[in-house]
Design goal:
globular; alpha+beta; 6 helices; 266 residues
Length: 266
Amino acid sequence: MEVKCVCCRCGNPQAGAAATLCLPVTGTQNSFHCHCFCCAQPPQMKCFYCNMPRDLGPLESHGACLPDKLHVFVNTEQWPPFSVNTPQPPLIGMVVTLGNAQEMQQLPDYVDGNNEVNRAISEMEETIYIEDEDDVPTMGTLEIVKTELQKSPGVVKPRVSTKFKWVSIGDIRKWKSCIRCGMVKIKSDGWLKHVQTCGQDPKFASRKFFIYLHTLSWCNTMVRNKFWEQHSNAKNGKCKICRLSRLNKDPLPYQPRPPTRKNHKK
């Protein structure tokens, strides 16, 4: 199995590293870390029951699982991968005491590697991780579920929800904590700037949101429309990423059309 590498700092795959920048250096605006591809990218995880992928796009959210079931995400491939080139170390025998003498119970020198790998794969397939102990299915329940999936016609397609959340500046000022990362609001200074940066930050798994009268920029920051030129101007914009992206005429990240706001005419 071919193992793909990802950057241990920003998570970008090695294949597309030439077109992406790593994380910025703390305290600077124009300096960025170098990519470090020392980590192996794990395989995609899917729900054991409904085949729903765990990692979705930025505009998607998980739908409901099968009736009376909760999502249980498992690896779709063998992980961690077993090396096919490295020989397996010899097994150490057990020391058996017979009277005053000790003899080494030597195990066979030859070990079938395929049988060991198949046995490990079987153990991985039988192991299911569930957070709530009350929802742990019994073996009988697992057999029934597998039988139902085999008898059901066609392939079970996951249900994906693509609803977008829109907020206004007035709503943000009323928040006591950020609905994305949970940071508590202590003072008003810098609060709007934090929300503009946190709303589409890919490092959080919670639901993303958009802000009215804002545009989603190339740096994943929502910029107020009246400050757009000041932020992303190709000659003297404040943001280096957006300045270079606009100079190269890169397309903007996808942003849906905002719905009609209350007390506003269509």
